[in-house]
Amino acid sequence: MPTIARRVVPFGTTIFTEINSLAQQYNAINLGQGKPDFDGPAEVVEAFRRALADGSYNQYAPGPGAPSLRQAIADFVGRFYNLDIDPARGVLVTPGATEAIFASIMGLVDPGDEVIIIEPFFDSYAPGVLMAGATPVYVPLYAPDWTFDEDELRAAFNPRTRALILNTPHNPTGRVFNRAELTLIAELAQQFDVTVISDEVYEHLVFDDYQHIPIATLPGMFEHTVTIGSAGKSFGMTGWKVGWVYGPETLVQGVGQAHQFIAFAVNHPAQQAVAHAFNTLPGSYYEDVRALYTTKRDLMMQALQAGNLKTALPQGTYFAMADFSDVFDGDSRAFAEYLIKEIGVACIPPTAFYSAEHQHLGRTQARFSFAKHDEMLHATAERLARLRA
Ligand code: PMP
Predict the structure, then answer these.
(1) CA of 10: how far to CAs of 14, 152, 325, 360, in Å?
(2) Which residue in 130, 176, 360, 389 has the most C-beta neighbors within 10 A?
C-alpha cells in the first residue's frame, strides 16, 4: 500500500479543523479560529467584482505579484513606516501570509540551520522549519505578561542560528512587543548575522497607547529582515488569501525563488482589489478598525471575567489567552472539549502553539478570538458565567 511521507506524519490534522467540527456538532459559539464573522469594506469587494468583469485579470498574474499591488505595498510601507522599498525587487505578493512564511523559510534557511521560534507560536512556523530540514529552537513567553526571559533568548543564539521568526502583534497572546524587547532581538540578530522573518499580519490591530514597531525600522535591521503582511488581517478578507513580503532585494529574491515553485502566482483579480484597498481607503479606515476591535476586546474581557477566567489585557490582535485553572481542573484540551459540550463556547487549546518541551506552559490556557459580532460576545459572557457555578 502507498503510504504518506514521514515528513508530514507528525503534523496530523490542525486543531482548527477539529475544534470547528466539534463546535458545529454542539452548536457552540465559535471563538476558535481567528476569522471575522463580518465582511471587510464593501468598496474593496466591489473592486474585486470590477476586476473580474474587466477581463484583464483572469489569467496568471506576474509571479512576484501584480505591479499595481507591489507599488501599493511599497507606498504603504513608505507612508506608515518611512521605509524606502523598491516595488519591483523588494516586494513579493503571496497567497496569504502562510505561504509568505513558508517561502521565507524555504528561501532563506538551509538544512541543518537553527531557527529560533518564540512560543506560543502561530502553528505553521514549526512545520515550515521542519519541512526545510532545519531545527527549531524554542524561546518561550511567560504568562501573565507574556514576555521572554532575556538570558533564554541570548542562549538560543549561536553560530548555527540562521533565522528568527518574530510575530508582533502576537497571536495567540495579544502582546505587542515593545522597543526594548525588539532592540534586544535586533542586537542579537546583527551580532549572529541572523535573518528575522517578521510576521506582522496584525500590524493595524493595536489598542490603547500601544504602538506597532516593525523590527525592520530599528537601526541596522532593514538588511536583516523580511516583513510579512496579509490582506486577510489588514482588510478583513481572510478568504482571499493575499499576503506579501517586503525587505531588502537579496532576501526578497531568495523568498521569490522558493515562491515561484510553491505557488508561482497569486489570484489576479484579488490582487487588484487589495491594491485598490491600499490606494483608496482613507487613514480613518485604520482608526475605525482599531475602535471597532477595542470595543470587541473590552466585551471579550467582560466575558472572560464573567467566567472567572484570568487574562492579560490584549495589547493587539483579536485574540485573548485566558487561564482557566480557577474554574476547571484538567488540561487545555479537556477544557476546550468541556467548554464546547457543556458551556457552548469554542476556544482553541494552545497545545499546537507549543513545542513538546514547553507544552506545560500552555496547560491551563485557552485562546479566544474576539473577531465576532458584539451580540455573540455578549452571549459568550452569559454562557461563560455558568463556569462560576
Ligand atoms: N500569521 C499569523 C500570526 C496569523 O494569525 C495568521 C492567520 N491566523 C497568519 C499568519 C496567516 O495569514 P493568511 O491567512 O494571510 O495566510
Answers:
(1) 11, 27, 29, 19
(2) 176
